[in-house]
Amino acid sequence: MTLALETTTGLTVRLRLADDWFEVCGLDRLIPGRGVAALLPDGRQAAVFTDRAGRLYAVDNRDPFTGAAVLSRGLTGTHRGRPFVASPLLKQRFDLETGRCLDDDAVHVTTYEVKAA
What we know:
- Residues 22-117 form the Rieske domain.
- By secondary structure, the chain is mainly β.
- The protein has strands at 12-17, 20-26, 36-39, 45-50, 56-60, 75-79, 82-86, 93-95, 114-116.
C-alpha cells in the first residue's frame, strides 16, 4: 500500500505479537531505506523498514550470525525482485518478507506482520 504524505499524519506502525497489535512508532518516523529498532514487550527487538513504495516490513533485529542487534542499521535493497536488509556486520542479506537468509538457506530471522493504522 502506498500512502500519500498528507495522509500519514497521525498513523502509527504496529506489529502483530501473538493475538494483539503492538504500537512501535509514528509512521512519520520511518525513512525509506533506513530501519528503526523497536523494543518489544518480551525484551526482544524488531527492525522496522519502509520502502519508497510505502510498503512496511518488520524482522527480528538480531543478526543470527553474530548475535548483535544490528539489522535495523543494515542496508536495504532488492535481489531478483525480493526486498532485503543486509547486516551491517558480515553483510548477509535477509529477505524482508520471509526472513530467509539469501546467502545461507539454513538461516532465517523472524518476520512480523506489520501495518500502519
